[in-house]
Amino acid sequence: MKIDNSLPLEYSTEENRLKILGFWIFLGAEIALFSTLFTVYFVLVNGVGNGPSPKDIYELKMVLIQTFLLLTSSFTIGLGIHAMRLGLKKAMMTFFIITLVLGLGFLVFEIEEFITYVHEGATIQTSGFLSSLFTLLGTHGLHVTFGLFWGTAILMQVKKQGFTPETTNKSFIFSLYWHFLDVVWIFIFSFVYLKGLM
Amino acid sequence: MKQLFPVSHVMGFVFSLVLSLVALTVVFYDMSYAMGMTILLITAFAQASVQLLMFMHMGESKDKVTLYTNIAYALFVGVFTILGSLLLLVWDI
Amino acid sequence: MKWDEFFVFTHDPMLFAAMISIVLGGLAIFVGLTYFKKWGYLWTEWLTTVDHKRIGVMYILVALVMLFRGGVDALLMRAQSAVPENGLLNAQHYNEIFTTHGLLMILFMAMPFIIGLMNVIIPLQIGARDVAFPRLNAVSFWLFAAGAALLNISFVIGGSPDAGWTAYFPLASLEYSPTVGNNYYSLALQISGIGTLMTGINFIVTILKMRAPGMTLMKMPMFTWSVLITNVIIVFAFPVLTVALALMMLDRQFGTQFFTMSNGGMDMLWANLFWVWAHPEVYIVILPAFGIYSEIISTFARKNLYGYKSMVVSMVAISLLSFLVWAHHFYTMGQGVMANSIFSIATMAIAVPTGVKMFNWLFTLHKGKITFTTPMLYSLAFIPIFTIGGVTGVMLGMASADYQYHNTMFLVAHFHYVLIPGTVFAVIAGFHYWYPKVFGYQLNERLGKLGFWLITISFNVAFMPLFILGLNGMTRRMYTYSEETGFGPLNMLSFVGALGLALGFIVLVYNIYWSARYSPRDTSGDPYDARSPEWSTHSPVPVYNFAIVPTINSLDAFWYAKKNKAPFFEGKYEPIHMPSNSGQPFLMGVAFCFWGFFMVFSWWIPAIISALGIFATMIYRTFERDHGYYISVEEIERTENALRGDKQ
Amino acid sequence: MKIKWALLSLIFTITTVLTGCDQPLLVLDPKGPQAKTLSDTIIFSMVIMAGILLVVYILYAYMLTKYRASKMGEDYEPPHEEGSHTLEIIWTLIPVIIVVVLSVVTVRSTSDVEAVPKGYEEDKPLVIYASSSNWKWHFSYPEEGIETVNYVNIPTDRPVEFRLYSHGPISSFWIPQLAGQKYAMNAMINELNLVADAPGSYIGKNSNFNGKGFAHMDFEAQAMTASEYVQWVEDVKETAPKLSEKEFNSLLEIDFVGRKTYSSNHLTFSPPPVGNHGHNPDEKDGKDASEDESNSHEEHNQH
Ligand code: HEA
Ligand code: HEA
Ligand code: CUA
Ligand SMILES: [Cu+2]
C-alpha cells in the first residue's frame, strides 16, 4: 500500500482518499434524505387534526439546551481532528470522549422532550403534523445514536492501534458525520422550532 | 494547550453561537413572516457554511470541485423538492 | 393470523402450482449442488466473491430470472384481457399481477440488469482493477438479492402487493389493503433500495477516482459517462424513496398519520413523494441504455461517436431536468393551472436534450460502415421505436391533453414504448455485445437475429394497439371489460404480440444454451475490432483485469493504438493488490432478508433478533482488519502466458 | 428492414379497419366545448409529432440504406467526425421552438379547460357533487335537493360544475366525450367544469385504480334539453324515496349497486369536505400559515 507522507495520515493512502470522497457523496444523499423529511414536515405542519399545534408543544428552553450541546460537540470534534493531525493521541481521545458525552447529553434531552410530548398527549400517532415531527426529529436522533456506537468503536481502535492510516481515516470520516448532524440540527432548530414559535 | 485550540475553530464556534442568537430574535421580536424567514434562511445557511467549510475542511483536498458539485447538486434537489411539493400540495396558486 | 392467510396458495390452484415448482426447483438445486459437491465452489467462488465481474454476472442472472417472472405476469394479463369478460384471472389476481409486474420489471429487472452490466464493464472501460469499494459492492448485491427474494416470496406467503406499483394512498393503507402485501412492498423495496444507493456512491467514486492514467473526463467512453450521471441521479433520488417507504411502513404498521384521511394526514403527499423518486427512476433506467447504444452504434458503424461533447452535456441536462418534472404524473390532482404549466414546460424541455442525442446517433451512422450484428440490430431498432415512445411522452407532457390520456392504455403504451425499445433492447444488446468478454465465446448470430426480429415485430404488435385503445377510453388496470366497449379485437391483437414476445425471449434463452455448447471460443479478446479499453484485455477477463494498467491519451485510445500499431500497454508487471473475498456481505443480506420477512408480519421479537444480526455483521466489519492480498509477478506471468497461449 | 415496414403498415391498416369503420375514438369525438378543446390540442400535437417522426425516419432510412458495409467496399474506412456546430445548433433550436409552441398551446388550453367554458361565463352553473365510494358514484344536486347513484342527468347548453370528492381511496372522474378527468379525493373538493352541446348518453367512469371493483365503476351521463331536465327533476321529487342517513351509510358499505334515485341528498347529514388544495380550510395558504396558527392558538391552549 502506497503511503503519501505529504498528506495528513487520514488522506495518506489511495484507499483512504476514496473513502473520504465516498463518504462525502453519502452526505450528499443524506442531504436529499433530510430534505425529503423537511418536505414532509412543511407539508404536514398545518395538519394538526384534533391534536396540538407546534406552538402548543415546542419549548424554547429544551431546544436551546439541545442546540448548545450539539453545537459544542461539533466544535470539540473539530478540535479532536485538529489534535489528531498534530499527532496528539491523548488530546484527540479526550476531545472525542467529550464529543460523545455531549452527544449523549443531547440525546437525553431529546428523549426527555419526547416523553413530555407524549405526556401531553402528543404522540406520533396523533396527527399528520406530529407524525412528521417525530419522524424528522427521530431520524436525526437515530443518526446521533448510531454515531455514539460508531464513535465508541473508533475510540477503541485508536486506543489500541494508535494513529494509523486506517484509524485516522475512520476518525476523520466520523468527524464529517458528526458535523453533518450538526448541520441538520441547525435547520431543525431554525425551521422547525424557531419558525414554529415565530 | 494553546495549540489545541486553533483560532479559526474557536472563531467558528463563537460565530455559530452568535448566529444562533441572531436567529432567536425571530421568536422574541414581532416581525413579519417574510422578515422572519429571511433571517432564518440567512443564519441557517451561514451556519451550515461554517460547518462545511471550516470544520469539515471541504476545500482542503484535491477533490474539492467534486465536493462542491456534490453539495450543490444535493441542494438543488433538496430545494426544488421542498418548493415544488409546497407548490403542488399547499400553496393555493 | 390463520394458516390459510399465511400460505395464500392453499385456496388457489395456480399459486399452489407455483409454490410446488418453487419447492421442487429449490430441492433440485440443493440436491444437484450436493451431488456434484459444488457447495464449496458456490461459496468460495460466488457467494463470497468481491470481484466486480462476478457480482455483475450474478446481477444479470437474477435480472433475467425476474424478466421471465415479470414476463409471465405480463402474458397472464394480456391473456386475461384478450377477450371481454374473461374468467382466467379474478380481480384480486389481476391487481396483484400488474403490481408485481411493474415492480419486478422496473426495480428487479431493468435496474439490476443495468447495474449488472455496469459492474462487469465499467472497471474494464476505465482501466481499473476493481470498483472503489469491492466489499460494499458485494453488500449492494446481497441487499438487492434480499429484496428480490422478499418480493417473490410474497407471491406464496401472505399475498403480493395489490395497489399498483405506484401504491397510492389511501388505497395502499391498512384500511383498504389489509393483507401484508403492501408491507412486502415497503420492506422489499427499502432493502434493495439501500443496496442501490450504495451502488450509486460506489460507482461515482470509482469513475471519478480510478480511471487509468491519462483518461480525463472527456476521454471516457460514453457508457462510462452515462453510468456516472445515472449514479448521480441514484444518489439523490433514492433517499426520497427511502423516506417514502419508511413513512408507508410507519403508516401501515405503526399507526402514524402521514397519508391518512383524517387527523391532518394527506393522501396526495404519498403520490408526490413517490413520483419525486419515480420520475428520476425512469431516467436511471434509460441513461445507461443510451450509453450502451452509443458504444454499439459507434463500434458497428466503425466510426467515432458523433458530437461527443453534446452527448455529455445533454445527459447532464437530462439529469438535472429529471428532478423538476415529477408532477406530470398527477396533473389531474387539482393543483392550479400555474403549477401544471410549470411542470408541463419542464417536462417537454427534456425532449430537447434527448433529441440532440437522437440526431447524434443518426450522424454517427453517417459515412459509417454499418454491419448488422445482433447488438447493432437492437440498437438500430431502438431509434425509430423509442422516438414513438418519446414523442407520445411529450404529448402526455401537455397538461391539458393529459386530462384525457391519464390512466389510460395510451399511457401504458407510452411507457412500454420507452422502456422496452429503450431499456430492454439496450440490455439485451449489451448482453449480446459483451457476452464474449465475460464468457469467452459469442452468442450465435443466427439465433440472435431470429430473436431480434421476433421481439421487435411482436413488440409493435403488442403495444401499438394500446395507443388506440387508450384514445378510445380504455383505462389501465381493468381486469375485465364488457363486450359493448368494443375493446376486444385490439386487445386480442395485443395478446398475439405478447405471445410473439414470449417466443422471442425463449429463442434468446435457447441461444444461451446453444452457444454454451457449440459456440467457438473467441481468442482475440476483441471480436468486433472495437474502440474502448474493455476490449484490450483477454476474454474471459483475468481477476486483476489488466496485467498492466494502460495509459490513455485520447478518446478511443485503444482503437488508435490498434490502427497505429502502437502498444497499448507499456511497463512491466508489478505485484497487484486485490481485495480478499468475504462472507460478511452475504450473511448481511441473509440477515436483512429475515429481518424484512419478520417485519412484514410484524413479528417483533424475531425482527429484533435479525436486526441484531445485521448490526453484528456491521460491528464485525468495523473491527475487521483486512488488507487484501497481492498477486505476485510470477503468477501474473503464468496467467498471462496461459491466456495468450490460447491464442495459438 | 422491408419486413418491418410491411409489418408496420399492416398493423396500421388492421387498426384503422378495426376501429375506424364503426365509430370514431371516444376522446376524439367531443360533445362539448371542453372536450373539443382537448381533442383539438391532441390532434394538433399529433400532427407535430408525426412531422418529427417523419424527419427522424427519413434521416434513418437514408443512413441505413446508404452506409451499410455491403455497399461501402472492403477497404473503405469511415472518417473521424468530431461533430458540427451548425448541425448541433439546428437540432437544438428547432426542437426548442417546437417545445415553445407546444408550451403556449398547453398553457392556453389548460387554463381554458380549467375555467368555465367560453360563452357560458354568465350562465348560472348547475352544481353537482359527485362523490365516489367503493366502486359507486353518488351524484348530489344541492339546489334541486335530489340524489342519484351511478347515473347523472344534466341539461345541455348549460355549464355544469362538478364538485368531486371521495369517501375512500382516490378515484378519477371522467366523461371522455365531455371533459378531461380529475381526481376525487377524500379531504378536498376538486372542481370540474363542463358543458354538453348535444343531448345523448355518454360513458362516464372512474379511471383511477381504487381496488377490486374498479373495472365495474362506470356510470352513464345523460345530457338532455333544459325542459326535459326540469321535467326529470320534478318527477324525481315526486316519485323517488327520500335518502335517509341509514340508507346512505349502507350504500357506502356495499361494493356495488345498480342505479338509485332519491328525492333528498346526503349533503345535509354528511357534508362534503370543506378544503380546497392544501386540505385545511382555514389554512389554505402556506405562506401566511403562521398568522393562521396564531389565531387557532387560543383554542388549542385549552389542553
Ligand atoms: C425509460 C423510461 C421512460 C422514459 C425515457 C420516459 C420519457 C418521457 N416520458 Fe414517460 N413514463 C414512463 C417511463 C419513461 N418515460 C413510465 C414508466 C410512466 C408511467 C408510470 C405509471 O404511471 O405507472 C411514464 C409516464 C409519463 C407521463 C405521465 C402521464 C400520466 O400519468 O398521465 C408523462 C407526462 O408528461 C411522461 C412524459 C415523458 C416525456 C416527456 C419523456 C421524454 O423524456 C421523452 C423524450 C424523447 C423524445 C421526445 C424523442 C426524441 C426527440 C426528438 C426526436 C427531438 C424532437 C422532439 C420534440 C421537439 C418533441 N411519461
Ligand atoms: C421495464 C419495464 C417493463 C417491461 C419490460 C414490461 C414488459 C411487458 N409489459 Fe408491462 N408494465 C410495466 C413495466 C414493464 N413492462 C409497468 C411499470 C407497469 C405498470 C404497473 C402498474 O400499473 O402498477 C406495466 C403494466 C403493464 C400492463 C398494464 C396492465 C393494466 O394496467 O391493466 C400490461 C398489459 O398488457 C403490460 C404488459 C407487458 C408485456 C406484454 C410485456 C412484455 O414485453 C413482456 C415480455 C417478456 C416475456 C413475455 C417473458 C418471456 C418469457 C417466457 C414466456 C418464459 C418462458 C420460460 C422459460 C423459458 C423458463 N404491462
Ligand atoms: Cu387529497 Cu387533495
Ligand atoms: Cu415521469
Automatic annotation (TrEMBL), chain A:
Domain Heme-copper oxidase subunit III family profile: from-to ranges: 1-197
UniProt catalytic activity: 2 a quinol + O2 = 2 a quinone + 2 H2O
EC identifiers of the protein: 1.10.3.-
Membrane topology, from the record: Multi-pass membrane protein
Lineage: superkingdom: Bacteria
Family classification: Belongs to the cytochrome c oxidase subunit 3 family.
Record's function text: Catalyzes quinol oxidation with the concomitant reduction of oxygen to water.
Record-given protein name: Quinol oxidase subunit 3
UniProtKB/TrEMBL annotation, chain B:
Regions that span the bilayer: 7-29, 35-55, 67-91
Catalytic activity reported: 2 a quinol + O2 = 2 a quinone + 2 H2O
Domain of life (superkingdom): Bacteria
Annotated GO CC locations: cytochrome o ubiquinol oxidase complex; plasma membrane
Membrane topology annotation: Multi-pass membrane protein
EC annotation from Swiss-Prot or TrEMBL: 1.10.3.-
Protein's UniProt name: Quinol oxidase subunit 4
Organism: Domibacillus epiphyticus
From TrEMBL, chain C:
GO cellular component terms listed in the entry, alphabetical order: plasma membrane; respiratory chain complex
Compartmental location: Cell membrane
Transmembrane segments: 15-36, 57-77, 97-124, 136-157, 184-208, 228-249, 269-290, 311-331, 337-356, 377-399, 411-435, 447-472, 492-513, 586-619
Pathway(s) this gene product operates in, as recorded in its UniProt entry: Energy metabolism; oxidative phosphorylation
SUPFAM superfamilies for this protein: Cytochrome c oxidase subunit I-like
Keywords from the UniProt entry: Cell membrane, Copper, Electron transport, Heme, Hydrogen ion transport, Ion transport, Iron, Membrane, Metal-binding, Oxidoreductase, Respiratory chain, Translocase, Transmembrane, Transmembrane helix, Transport
Any Pfam family: COX1
Top EC class of this enzyme: oxidoreductase
Membrane topology listed for this record: Multi-pass membrane protein
Reactions catalysed according to its record: 4 Fe(II)-[cytochrome c] + O2 + 8 H(+)(in) = 4 Fe(III)-[cytochrome c] + 2 H2O + 4 H(+)(out); 2 a quinol + O2 = 2 a quinone + 2 H2O
CDD domains found in the cross-reference section: Ubiquinol_Oxidase_I
EC number: 1.10.3.-
Domain Cytochrome oxidase subunit I profile: residue ranges: 37-553
GO annotation terms (biological process): electron transport coupled proton transport; oxidative phosphorylation; respiratory electron transport chain
Any one GO MF annotation of this record: cytochrome-c oxidase activity
Cofactor note: Binds a copper B center.
Listed InterPro entries: Cyt_c_oxase-like_su1_dom, Cyt_c_oxase-like_su1_sf, Cyt_C_Oxase_1, QoxB
Main location: membrane
Tagged with keyword Mitochondrion: no
Named cofactor requirement(s): Cu cation; ferriheme a
Homology family: Belongs to the heme-copper respiratory oxidase family.
Physiological role: Catalyzes quinol oxidation with the concomitant reduction of oxygen to water.
PANTHER family documented for this protein: CYTOCHROME BO(3) UBIQUINOL OXIDASE SUBUNIT 1, CYTOCHROME C OXIDASE SUBUNIT 1
Protein name as it appears in the record: Quinol oxidase subunit 1
Organism field: Domibacillus epiphyticus
Lineage of origin: Bacteria, Bacillati, Bacillota, Bacilli, Bacillales
Automatic annotation (TrEMBL), chain D:
Catalytic activity: 2 a quinol + O2 = 2 a quinone + 2 H2O
Superkingdom, natural source: Bacteria
GO biological-process terms attached to the record: ATP synthesis coupled electron transport
Residue stretches making up the Cytochrome oxidase subunit II transmembrane region profile domain: 17-117
Natural source organism: Domibacillus epiphyticus
Entries under InterPro entries matching the protein: CcO_II (IPR045187), CcO_II-like_C (IPR002429), Cupredoxin (IPR008972), CuRO_UO_II (IPR034227), Cyt_c_oxidase_su2_TM_dom (IPR011759), Cyt_c_oxidase_su2_TM_sf (IPR036257), QoxA (IPR006332)
UniProt-recorded Gene Ontology molecular function terms: copper ion binding; cytochrome bo3 ubiquinol oxidase activity; cytochrome-c oxidase activity; oxidoreductase activity, acting on diphenols and related substances as donors, oxygen as acceptor
Record bears the keyword Signal: yes
Any Pfam family matching the protein: COX2_TM
Biased composition (Basic and acidic residues): 279-303
Cellular component GO terms held in the UniProt record: plasma membrane
Residue ranges of every copy of the Cytochrome oxidase subunit II copper A binding domain listed in the record: 123-235
The keyword Oxidoreductase belongs to this UniProt entry's keyword annotation: yes
Similarity comment text for this entry: Belongs to the cytochrome c oxidase subunit 2 family.
Name under which the protein is recorded: Quinol oxidase polypeptide II
Region Disordered: start-end pairs: 267-303
